[in-house]
Amino acid sequence: MTDEPWAAQVAKVVAGEVRRHRQRRGMSAQQLSDACAQLGHPIARGVLANFESGRRPTVSVPELLVFAQALQVPPALLVFPLGHEDVVSPLPGQSAPPWAALKWLTGETDRLPGSTEPADTEVVRLYRDHDRRLGDWLSSREKMLSLLSSSDPEMAKLRAETDQAGGGAPPLVELFRQSMQSAEDALRTVRQTMRDQGLIPPDLGPMGAAIDGVTLEDTARTYASAKGISFEEALRVVYGRIGEEPPPSGGTGAH
Prior knowledge:
The protein is mainly alpha-helical. The chain has helices spanning 6-24, 29-38, 45-53, 61-71, 75-79, 98-106, 122-149, 153-164, 171-196, 206-211, 216-227, 231-241; strands spanning 88-91, 94-96. Helix 1 (6-24) runs parallel beside helix 4, helix 7 (122-149) packs antiparallel against helix 9 and helix 11 packs across helix 12 (231-241). Residues 250-255 have low confidence and may be disordered.
């Protein structure tokens, strides 16, 4: 620890990482300044030079985010540089390994080393669980579709034998179908848990409508209201996103 104010210590670390990543990418200070401007948040070359040299010992959150995008590096790594520091200062008077501090910043863990007060990471946990459940569902779906469309001779033979026997889907396809259904049920559950807690689940597009038990027509009505267009036009957009033609207007139940 140093006698330097904590906020200035954090800014100094960010400044050092901005300079290191800029040089690693072969960017001049002017090029980084231009990149920030292109992102919609101009940072003058002189301001950048003063920041990197330590003459400007502050950095705002918007600046941090724009620097990160311009340098194509996760924002958290500008604050807690993994692999380049043995210890960082996540709070005044506290030190921690960079990895532990980064996990605390992202909500992957609920506390810093030595802290007895856990943070509420339930929201982050729910969204991570959603990602995992969605990945399981997409993986099972892809495998099932791949098996159904496979030109592999053995798979074709299995499908033919199953058809001749009057059976259902081949056993392996049925296994993946059941796996997909299980993953879909789990995904639907976590999305409902989010809503129960007043959270907005990630948008899954037309695919999400089926998972949430919302029809494409319901989605089209919502889209029409939001965009100020006719129901028929919204219906064409929604069905078009999944590569299908909308049903005849008489059968949609539109009001």
